[in-house]
Write a structure and sequence with these properties.
Strand order of the largest sheet: 2-1-3-4
Largest sheet: 4 strands, parallel
Number of strands: 4
Structural class: alpha/beta
Length: about 270
């Protein structure tokens, strides 16, 4: 018998979707198709988000700790910071917002009351938070926004100390993850260290600093990545992936039972709202 898998929304019939438990969490991986330097494929964020979400959902399903259903991953998202390089396919912020709202509306109309995004691309973070509240307000959905790896500007831990917390795109962490998940797609012979150490001169502004700043990947050189992929290993990637999956497992289970004090007064399901 094969390993347990979480049910995929697209594989179910409508009566099966209607019969899902009331506390089912619909999980939507958010990836990206964008340049990741000369050494990683443009599918990097899509691969990491999809694989982590699927592994965590399978683990939750096998344990019986919660009901989870996997939505098909969203490949094209907000990647305009990488628009200066070939291979980046990005949606404008308003297009992506409409897509997320439309998907959430459809999920709610199917009777599902909980929607959790698993994000693999830092550029989606701010918009995802706005979508969370919009979906909560308009359709009564319980909404959650989780990361495969929390971005540095949101308190995430650096994957490698040698990058000084500046390995935010195509560096040690992402390269290691891809060496673990899709080693045949990684071109390590093209990997070079590209750590913007000049940013260390600033105490208030920067990645992981109190004040964020607008940036394009082209601000940091001609190769597109920001970090040091030369130190990446499949072993490090396996450790990062397993940590991400463990975090998501706990998150999925909590999302299935998450409530607020007002739930008793506003307990209508999305289907009740029409």
């Amino acid at each position: 018998m094969g390993a347990a898998r979480a049910p995929r929304f697209a594989d179910l019939t409508w009566p099966e979707i209607e019969a899902l438990p009331d506390d089912t969490v619909a999980v939507l991986p958010l990836g990206a198709i964008e340049q990741h330097g000369p050494h990683l494929p443009v599918s990097t964020d899509l691969v990491t988000a999809s694989e982590a979400a699927a592994a965590a959902a399978a683990a939750v399903t096998a344990s019986g700790a919660a009901s989870v259903v996997l939505l098909e991953p969203l490949a094209y998202t907000k990647s305009d910071e990488h628009a200066g390089f070939p291979g980046t396919i990005w949606l404008s912020w308003d297009t992506l917002m409409r897509v997320l709202v439309d998907v959430g509306r459809s999920v709610a109309a199917s009777g599902i009351t909980r929607l959790l995004f698993v994000n693999g691309h830092g550029g989606n973070s701010a918009l995802g938070q706005v979508a969370n509240r919009e979906l909560r307000r308009r359709f009564g959905l319980r909404t959650f926004f989780a990361h495969v790896a929390t971005p540095r500007d949101q308190g995430g831990t650096p994957a490698s100390g040698a990058e000084h917390g500046l390995g935010v795109h195509g560096g040690h962490g992402e390269t290691s993850l891809m060496l673990h998940l899709r080693p045949e797609l990684v071109r390590m012979e093209r990997a070079e260290r590209r750590v913007p150490e000049d940013l260390l001169a600033y105490e208030q502004i920067g990645f992981g600093r109190p004040t964020s700043f607008g940036w394009l990947s082209s601000d940091f050189g001609p190769d597109g990545h920001i970090g040091d992929p030369t130190t990446a290993t499949a072993e490090a990637g396996k450790e990062l992936f397993e940590h991400a999956v463990e975090h998501l497992v706990r998150t999925f289970v909590e999302a299935s039972r998450f409530t607020t004090p007002a739930d008793g007064a506003a307990g209508l399901t999305a289907r009740d709202r029409g």
